[in-house]
Specification:
- The protein is mainly α and 76 residues long.
- The protein has one domain.
- It has three helices and no strands.
- The longest helix has 24 residues.
- The termini are far apart.
């Protein structure tokens, strides 16, 4: 049985929970985390070494912080 990459699980959970009642900050942080997780998983596959799961976790963290920074600079 193949293992499901963590990025697919994270994105699926975000899609199921929905973002209808979130404010702009929450939407940007979640979007950044989802994009970062997908990117990190992709880099983890291509670069090797750390692997898909670790790449997705690092990417999600970086993406969430990036989304927060974008929100803070956009709201000023």
């Amino acid at each position: 049985m193949r293992k499901i990459p963590i990025a697919v699980v994270v994105v699926s959970l975000l899609a199921v929970t929905g973002c209808a009642n979130l404010d702009n900050t929450e939407q940007r942080v979640i979007s950044g985390a989802a994009i970062g997780a997908a990117t990190g998983a992709s880099i983890g596959v291509v670069a090797g070494g750390l692997g898909i799961g670790t790449g997705a976790l690092i990417g999600a963290g970086v993406g969430a912080v990036g989304g927060l920074i974008v929100d803070e600079t956009a709201s000023d």
